[in-house]
Amino acid sequence: MYDLAFVRGNLPLLEERLSLRGVDSSLLDGFSSLDAERRSAITEAETLKAQRNALSAEFGRMKREGAETTAIAAKTLALKEKTEQLEAVAVEADQKLRSLLESLPNLPHESVPAGASEQENFCEKTWGEIPSFDFPAKPHWEIGEHLGILDFERAAKISGARFVLQLGSGARLERALANFMLDLHTREHGYVEVLPPSLVNSRSLFGTGQLPKFAEDLFHCDDKGPYVAGEFQENDHWLIPTAEVPVTNIFRDEIIDLSNGSISFTAWTPCFRSEAGSHGKDTRGMIRQHQFQKVELVKFTRPEDSYAEHEALTRHAEAVLERLGLPYRRMLLCAGDMGFSSAKTYDLEVWLPGQQTYREISSCSNFEGFQARRANIRYRPAGARKAEFVHTLNGSGLAIGRTYLAILENYQQADGSVRIPGALQPYMNGETVITRQSLGRAL
RNA sequence: GGAGAGAUGGCCGAGUGGCUUAAGGCGCACGCUUGGAAAGCGUGUAUACCGCAAGGUAUCCAGGGUUCGAAUCCCUGUCUCUCCGCCA
């Protein structure tokens, strides 16, 4: 969300930059008249209120002196009525203005290329060697089912489409990945581990920008009744689509201390996505699930530090891929392909031999003050009286499900077994290869 | 789920209808004092919005209501605490 005064002073700039993102600039057409309407109603209403307040004080004085007060009481009542009408006008204009501002996506940073779709993303670098196999590389679902570590059919029976059941060494591999990533980020990259709630209220989802526009992508619990569009409660429940939501909202409505630099959190959580609108996309395997796990990186920074921190955070995510020996490339997203709240985003894409393509495994974004304004997260700049909005950043470090399938595909062997990357072996009780699971009578 | 108590500024805490944006204390900042420090003394210390400005408006958990006037009275909700019940 933008600052009202900023929009007022920079309308042409906004229209131009938002058009880079494919935002219809007519959205801003109503701004000026709404703004003027709101301001004049407020000014008038407040003038009347000041008069009423003065009359009330006068009333008190007269009452104490025993004077006649019916005339003055009638006067204030008349003023009250007028004031209430004006206030209603002000509130309506204010709400319209606010929902207009809330619906605008963030401005792309100068370094972000123009473009409408992922076709125009820019590849900044590639890392690692694409493995070649002397046998036909299989997709992960075939590998996993053959090994007996992935069971999509039973997951469908239990829960429906887009769920998976992981078993034996396959379940342990998921846990090993989480521990490996958390240890790397906390021990070597300076992040503080947090374990946040997996259910959040709608105020939190507003703060990070998922609500009100993207409600259909989320799972909503109706224990407090249905979601009313645009109403942000502190007592309703949604399943988190990413740890970004609870972790960024840790400091909602707070003034935090950044005098010693940024605050960095890492969190391992389940993530839940309805995947509405992606019917028929990635239906096989565990690329696109309703539930997956992710280790997330979140930073709160001073504005002047955020772009350096964005590079650092992206490197922290890349380090995971490099330690695991997974080939990847870094894409700088063009304006049209970025998320709603982001000013600049790098996607990391991992090579999947089974599908002969790169797929997104991490998304690292700088939101500048966009989320901080929605969530009201501020800090006091050194020597300044007034608190300013912080910059927030986050990135996957990494999506565990996708890392998992990348390992299956990149480390597969001719006999169907899968080698375990060295960095992961200490987390796998010394296992070095996953072979066809003997799960005894379990299945 | 049942019963009760509570929510006031960065923190503690007073305040049951006008003289309360809110006493007092702590903390913090600045100044005086001092060889220097502590103590002491003095001054200052919320946010948002409207206004060219002077200034004004709003905010004592949130939302409604009563009243000429609400931190204060009434209703609803949220959260916290205590006890009971249930429970991983």
Can you describe this structure?
- By secondary structure, the chain is an alpha+beta fold.
- The chain has two domains: about 5-100, Serine-tRNA synthetase, tRNA binding domain (Helix Hairpins, Orthogonal Bundle); about 120-435, Bira Bifunctional Protein, Domain 2 (BirA Bifunctional Protein, domain 2, 2-Layer Sandwich).
- It has helices at about 5-10, 10-20, 30-65, 70-100, 140-145, 150-160, 170-190, 200-210, 245-250, 305-325, 370-375, 400-410, and strands at about 120-125, 150, 165, 190-195, 200, 220, 235-240, 255, 265-270, 290-300, 330, 345-350, 355-365, 375-380, 390, 390-400, 420, 435.
- The strands form five sheets. It has an eight-stranded mixed sheet with strand order 1-11-12-13-16-10-9-4. Strands 5-7-6 form a three-stranded antiparallel sheet. The chain has a three-stranded mixed sheet with strand order 8-14-15.
- Helix 7 (about 170-190) crosses helix 12 (about 400-410).
- It binds one RNA strand of 88 nucleotides through helix 3 and helix 4.
